[in-house]
Write a structure and sequence with these properties.
alpha+beta; three-stranded antiparallel β-sheet; 2 helices; 6 strands; globular
C-alpha cells in the first residue's frame, strides 16, 4: 500500500460476508494528480490511517467479537530471551490503560501467532 491510497478487499468466512477498505493519509496530493485532494478523514488531521469493514454476519454471534492481528505462520514465533520481557512490559503498560482483555500468543501447534482484543476496545466508532 502506498501513500494516499486505498485498498478494497472482499471478505468471506463462515461467519461474515462483506468488504474491507484500508486507507492511508497523504500529506499532499500526488504529483501525477495535483488537482486531486487527498482523502481528509472527515477533517481530522491527527488520523494517519483508517480501516473500514462493512457487511453482514451470516448467523447470530454467540459471544464477544474480537479484532486479531495474525502472522501467516503456524510455527511458534521465536523471540529472544531479551525481547520477551520487553514485550511483556509493554503489554502490561497497555493493559494499565484499561485494555485488560488484550491477549498475545506466540503461536505454535498449528495456531498462528496473534495479538487480539475485544472489538469494542479497538474501534474508534461502530456505526
Amino acid at each position: 500500500m502506498t501513500e494516499r491510497s486505498s485498498v478494497i478487499v472482499n471478505v468471506s468466512s463462515p461467519l461474515f460476508e462483506g468488504q474491507a477498505c484500508a486507507m492511508l493519509r497523504s500529506a499532499k496530493p500526488a504529483p501525477s494528480h495535483p488537482d486531486e485532494a487527498p482523502y481528509d478523514f472527515g477533517g481530522d488531521k491527527e488520523i494517519l490511517w483508517e480501516y473500514q469493514l462493512q457487511g453482514r454476519f451470516k448467523r447470530p454471534l454467540k459471544g464477544p467479537l474480537y479484532l486479531s492481528l495474525e502472522l501467516p505462520q503456524t510455527d511458534k514465533y521465536s523471540v529472544s530471551i531479551f525481547v520477551r520481557p520487553l514485550i511483556s512490559a509493554v503489554l502490561k503498560f497497555i493493559k494499565s490503560w484499561g485494555y485488560r482483555d488484550l491477549a498475545l500468543s506466540y503461536g505454535g501447534s498449528g495456531t498462528p501467532p496473534h495479538l487480539s482484543c475485544p472489538l469494542y476496545q479497538t474501534c474508534d466508532r461502530i456505526n
